[in-house]
Write the structure tokens for this entry.
Amino acid sequence: MKAIALLFGLMFLTPEGSPDVTKWLQIADSTRNAFEEAVITARASQVVDGKVSEATDFEVYAKGRDRGVIVFRSGGNKGRKVLTDGPKMWILIPGASRPIPVTPNQRLLGGASMADVASLRFSVDYTATLKPETETVGGKPCRVLELKAKSPTAPYPRVLLWWNEADKLPAKVLFHLPSGKEAKEITFTKFSTKAGRTIVSEMEIRDLLAKDPRVVTRLEYLDYRPGKLDEALFTPEGAKGL
């Protein structure tokens, strides 16, 4: 058993014995985007001093990295849909004849924006440097990765990612604006297993630019259904039928 445990541990090291940070980033990506196509039932709750003040339920139809449809099932946006195709995004309002263009920074609820349920890839969009110090997140020791965006136009050119060495999972992410100012902090609070893969099932988002620092947005993934999705769903006409 000891030999098996040692072999498993070596999977996360390079031949030189240094941590394989690229592998860490790939795992972090896979926990948030485990399947190429899936339907996710989710809930966004605004929490103030530990109490939920507002919540909205929605479904996310995701296909590949760049296409998706968000369907709001409750709250003030009930009946509305958000369609994404690459960098473009539209909102479909019941009764409106045409989709309305919006930006990825459009608010979902509290500190969560449309981009928080999109498909950022750390292993593809960033290069990583392992910092020497160890820090604690949720009572567990973590290594800290400093990520720098490969694209000069990235909305978050610098990101810090805390890696839980014991669980071999991401623990927290801190996003910085081009000005260097801290913009958003995401803590991964729960994980689950679906179709043999480990996925994030709950995260907490803090908008560090908000007026009230007490507000936390909790994003819960209530159900995760991988499966083939029709191409037609990712058009204004197809999204209207969801």
